[in-house]
Amino acid sequence: MSKFDPTEASPADFDQHIAALEKQLAEQTAAAERTRDRLQWFRDGRQLFAGDGAADGQDAEAKADPNSRVVGLARESFNGKKPNLRQAILVLMLERPPEHGRELEWPAKDVIVGLEREGWMPSGSNAENIVRNMLRDMAKRTQLDRPNYGTYRLTRKMREGRIDAGA
User: Fold this and answer.
1) CA 96 → CA 103, 106, 109, 142, distances in Å?
2) Which of 20, 71, 85, 150 suits a disulfide with 161, CB 3.0-4.6 Å?
3) Does 100 have pLDDT greater than 70?
């Protein structure tokens, strides 16, 4: 577009500039959303795959919470057998110690990725729905909190082993 002189512009000229700027804004907004999604993907990936100590060079085991296995759901307790879905979700969450005194929030998609990584994901075409339903059930049973729609975290009582894992 050429230089715009509002004193000599018609309503159609304004409309043309408005349309061009709306298009530019939509493109930039879409680009920003793609960048935000990519940034979140890398943050989630670092959390899932690099471990807690990766960012500061500490070994994740050295930072592990001694209470993280209170409910007896250590991965070793399954003797190589696949845990049931409730146990598998709890093991995933219990193995991640709280940060700064707060339990980590787990979007359902991160739980699904963790279950797939461990080979604990249910089979079938509706496996993701099964996981999401289990997460909702665990929230109803106060094993998990649901701070936001589709996001879950261990309750303090679950971390401390004061409620039954319901396995």
Assistant:
1) 8, 11, 16, 19
2) 71
3) yes
